[in-house]
Amino acid sequence: MDYENQLINLINEKNAKIGIIGLGYVGLPLALSFLDNGFDVIGFDIDTSKINKIKSGKSYINHIPSEKIKKSIESNKFNPTLEFSRISLVDVIVIC
Q1: What mean pLDDT do residues 30-39 have?
Q2: What's the DSSP call for residue 87?
Q3: Distance separating alpha carbons of residues 16 and 90, to the nearest angstrom
Q4: Closest CA to 93 of 32, 27, 12
Q5: Total-model pTM
Q6: pLDDT tens-digit series, residues 51-93
Q7: Can you tell me the distance from the alpha carbon of 55 to that of 15, in angstroms, rounded to the nearest whole number?
Q8: How far is CA 5 from CA 8, 10, 39, 62, 90, in A?
Q9: What angle do CA 28, 3, 78 make, to 5 degrees?
Q10: How buried is residue 44: exposed, middle or buried, by Cβ count under 10 Å (0-12/13-18/19+)?
Q11: What's the distance, CA 94 to chain centroid?
């Protein structure tokens, strides 16, 4: 099986790890949407304060409740990070 079909199977089975680059007003809601649909997500950003807030379960976007972020972090399915070296751990990359 070629890589493309392997990736399609990973996505269809919700086993693909999603990487979101940029956890701003587009990236954070997109990450939460992937999480709601059963995917594991690594969120990448260069803003230390943003990553620290998200890791502590706090939202910095008014229409996103902190409880939703906290629940995602506690599930260990959402891993926000400053470490772009972890990009090799994802199957899909979305740049926001």
Answers
A1: 97
A2: G
A3: 7
A4: 27
A5: 0.93
A6: 999 999 999 999 999 999 999 999 999 999 999 999 999 999 9
A7: 23
A8: 5, 9, 18, 39, 16
A9: 20
A10: buried
A11: 9
